[in-house]
Specification:
alpha/beta; 434 Repressor (Amino-terminal Domain); Rossmann fold; 12 helices; elongated
């Protein structure tokens, strides 16, 4: 394997000179730089990024902590983040917090090891323990969360309220549904709280009553969509439409409808939130709220790199970026009025 020592031997210069040349140090003459770079290319030299980070006390590695790296939603976020970091010569290190079960320990670990130059973190909310960890970090970070608990930090988030509000209004005013159920995300998740509030507000404004058993808690997984969907579809006075707080739970509702022998949208209509890639290929294609997931990842990465390059103090006024949503009307709903 090619090393700095081998390059130095072949170029007949010191190891220190090779190191300076590879880091574009102005103290090294142009002729020497060209010679060293030519030899490095011939030897197919690959720098040890980790060692360089420790030596320079800087890093071009961006950490991205997500609850689940296999979920399609998070795959689209990763794509957006990585596209921007690559353009700016940063590497993306994706780290799973295992559905938030190990969020605090994972965060503490990555902040201790000194590998990261910056961090993007998807969080359900900011509790006291997480707030304490973030207050001690020395590297720039950006959060992806839509809730009030993240008001003191730089945040990129989807406009959860407007998206859920617009969808509920569409179901009522355009389609004519009056019996609307909602499968929420986890009760401790800020995004889920905002979406259910928007749903309730829109129903109230349109004089649509919501029976207590029409709101069921899920956890943003397909499995919880199946369970909650089965529960709602088994009610004696079942809803006309189910608004799942994300597309993965909407997929679970499709599974439940199939198990119950119900036709979508004739027997039960289903809508979601996110517009993940697979939603357009369901049978029937899913009506949903497009959350511009990849764009959210891009904006988070752009904001973080801006902070890193400008060395913005953590005490500066936090920046808030909201990603606009739009309705994507497909065939899982119908006009009934």
């Amino acid at each position: 394997m090619a090393t700095i020592r081998k390059i130095a031997e072949k170029a007949k210069v010191s190891i220190a000179t090779v190191s300076r040349a590879l880091n574009n140090d102005p103290k090294v003459t142009e002729d020497t730089k060209k010679l060293i770079l030519k030899i490095a290319n011939e030897l197919n030299y690959k720098p040890n990024i980790v060692a360089r980070n420790f030596a320079k006390k800087t890093s071009n590695i961006i950490g991205l902590i997500l609850p689940d790296i296999t979920d399609e939603f998070f795959s689209e976020l990763i794509k957006g983040v990585d596209e921007v970091t690559y353009q700016h010569n940063y590497f993306t290190m994706v780290i799973s917090s295992h559905r938030y079960l190990q969020l605090e320990s994972t965060l503490s670990s990555v902040l201790r090891n000194g590998l990261l130059g910056g961090l993007i973190l998807l969080v359900p909310n900011i509790n006291a323990s997480l707030k304490n960890i973030l207050s001690q970090t020395k590297i720039p970070f950006v959060l992806m969360s839509g809730g009030m608990s993240s008001t003191n930090y730089d945040v990129v988030s989807v406009d959860n309220y407007q998206g859920a509000y617009d969808m509920t209004n569409y179901l009522i005013k355009k389609c004519g549904y009056t019996k609307i159920a909602h499968i929420t995300g986890p009760t401790d998740n800020d995004d889920a709280k905002i979406r259910v509030k928007a749903f309730k507000d829109a129903c109230l404004e349109n004089n649509i009553s919501i029976p207590k058993n029409f709101i069921v808690e899920g956890d943003f997984t397909r499995e919880s969509g199946v369970k909650s969907g089965m529960e709602l579809m088994s009610l004696k006075n079942k809803p006309e439409v189910i608004f799942a707080a994300n597309d993965m739970m909407a997929l679970g509702c499709y599974d439940a409808a199939f198990k119950k022998g119900l036709n979508i949208p004739d027997d039960i209509a289903i809508v979601g939130f996110d517009d993940i890639f697979v939603s357009q290929y369901l049978n029937p294609p899913l009506t949903t709220v497009r959350a511009q997931i990849e764009d959210e990842g891009k904006k988070a990465a752009e904001l973080l790199i801006e902070k890193i390059k400008s060395k913005i103090s953590v005490n500066n006024q936090p920046k808030k970026i909201k990603i606009a949503t739009e309705l994507v009307i497909r065939n899982s709903t119908k006009i009934i009025k």
